[in-house]
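Each record in this resource describes a single protein on a pair of labelled lines. With that in mind, the following record should read easily:

===
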Amino acid sequence: MTKRTATTLLIQTLRRSWSLDFPILSYNQTITGNLMEPTALAFLGAGLGAGLVALGAGLGIGKLAGPAMEGSARQPEAAGDIRTSMIIAAALIEGVALFGLVICIILATK
C-alpha cells in the first residue's frame, strides 16, 4: 500500500466514522497529491509566524526585565539608569516583534 492510498483510506474512514468534511483535504486533492491550497499554507505560515513572534518578544522582555529588577534591587541608586536602559531595550524588542507581525499580516493577505 502506498502512502497516498493510505492517506486516502484514512480520510475516507474519518469522514465515515465522524461524518467530518475537510474543506482543505478533499478526495480529489489527495489523489493528485495537492494536500493544501497555497492560500491555506499562507494563512498557516502567518499564524505560526505571529505566534512565534509573540513568544519570542515575551521571552526576550522577560529575560531583560528579570536581571534589571535584580540589579535595581541590589543597587537602588542605579535604578534610574537601569530602568532607562531596560525601557530602551524593551522598545527595540517590541519594534522587532511588530516588524515580524507586519510581515505575517502581509503574508496572510497576499
